């Protein structure tokens, strides 16, 4: 096979350091950028095979999200814009770790196992974030695609969710939208402007939002969006990459974990602010009050705002659709309590990692899923979308039902259903606050978070910890869960769990309790039990 010969020649230009072992984890490969050249070339090969197998366009995004600038990473996007199916993650790991001389054998094994017709055309979309290592690494991906005879389209600098969107648009023949940046901005901004028409008499202050771009791609892209927004939303963009370092003391992950504002942003009491992460698939909101206290509105608060808005609209529209909120163990206990007991919506808890939440959300008519760290979106089933479209087009219903149906229709259009998207989530949140005439402080008071703390613990082998019950209980090593249970009993309203990270070589410890001191103390004590 001519292509295999080409792979053999080209792979020599992207050699694997002997002995290096890496794994396709929760978010693809992610590590120090200087170890990734061969991984990128090989992921170009894998994406080409996946495209031949699915007979659809596949995406490859070069990014390490919220990791430091020195790192990089790569993740594959499946035909409907979702994450690569788990059964292929193993091939990713195999290809990554096979030594140079065995590469062709591994490649041919995958072709055989998956019965891939190599004569079929392949099409792969490639995108990258703003890291200094991204241009050469994305070139390595393009080289891999070319070596196997695939066609590639290089979108250059895009956010992760933008690339997911392009892949979905391409494979649905434009039904989801146009596979261009212009198409993305116009779909979202038009939906926003339709929604914003339902807000009355907003002052300039109410239209104003401070955005922390984490010195990354999100800042570049939100600026491009700005020109499409007219005067409906006024953005002040900070950490736009012109001075600071990517993700350094800024961005959604920093703000969420440190529970404080990013550097590089000047905020006055009451100002509504949000932070994106390094590839703009996460968003958190925050403000400081008149006493200078910092208030965070994380993924849980976002899920609550969005699901209560949708639930109200469904009632007004008279549509009987099943709505659920999907969370992980990191969701604040107060949010789960509020959703289940006050809002009375179904709540599901899944393992960490967006693909788990995404799959759980697909089981409902409307599935709102958010990780506490701000990664999330809303999924509408085909049936639910159909009913909403039908009602919006119905001329025999009263004004209230009509208005609710149109709001639901525009809400569908503003959401990027392929994956969590900071830009799309931001527009939806801004639209909801505007329509409800709600300030960020009012949103914050829907429920009060239990004080909580997240810690990282370095251990020699994090894989000795195995968990069950959506990662809420440790089954190994023996005795660890009993020790955690005993510590939790010492505190009020307390909860704690540990799990190995899928993206860093650490064990994560989470604790919540009635006061910050107690949450801190519990997290500390549990981290000692992990050693
Ligand atoms: P790990 O490192 O497995 O905890 C982190 C986040 C996930 C997810 C992935 C991918 C936390 C506690 N964990 O995973 O939610 O976003 O990164 O980016 O925030
Ligand atoms: Zn990210």
Written description of the protein model:
The chain is α/β, with parallel strands linked by helices. It has 4 domains: 2-157, Alpha-D-Glucose-1,6-Bisphosphate, Chain A, domain 3 (3-Layer(aba) Sandwich), CATH 3.40.120; 183-297, Alpha-D-Glucose-1,6-Bisphosphate, subunit A, domain 3 (Alpha-D-Glucose-1,6-Bisphosphate, Chain A, domain 3); 299-429, Alpha-D-Glucose-1,6-Bisphosphate, Chain A, domain 3 (3-Layer(aba) Sandwich); 452-530, TATA-Binding Protein (2-Layer Sandwich), CATH 3.30.310.50. It is 42% helix and 19% strand. It has 19 helices and 19 strands. The chain has helices at 2-11, 37-54, 86-97, 103-113, 134-147, 160-171, 181-196, 204-207, 217-226, 252-258, 299-317, 333-342, 354-361, 382-393, 399-414, 422-436, 440-444, 480-489, 516-530, and strands at residues 29-32, 57-62, 71-77, 123-128, 151-157, 208-212, 234-238, 273-276, 283-288, 294-297, 323-328, 346-350, 366-370, 376-380, 452-457, 466-468, 473-476, 495-500, 507-512. The strands form 5 sheets. A 5-stranded mixed β-sheet has the order 1-3-2-4-5, sandwiched between helices. Strands 7-6-8-9-10 form a 5-stranded mixed β-sheet, sandwiched between helices. Strands 12-11-13-14 form a 4-stranded mixed β-sheet, sandwiched between helices. β2 and β3 form a beta hairpin. The longest helix has 19 residues, at 299-317. The protein is globular and about 65 Å long. The protein starts with a helix and ends with a helix. The mean pLDDT is 96. Bound molecules: 2-acetamido-2-deoxy-1-O-phosphono-alpha-D-galactopyranose and zinc ion (ZN). 2-acetamido-2-deoxy-1-O-phosphono-alpha-D-galactopyranose binds next to loops. 2-acetamido-2-deoxy-1-O-phosphono-alpha-D-galactopyranose is lined by residues 26-27, 65, 330, 352-353, 371, 373, 375, 501-504, 508.
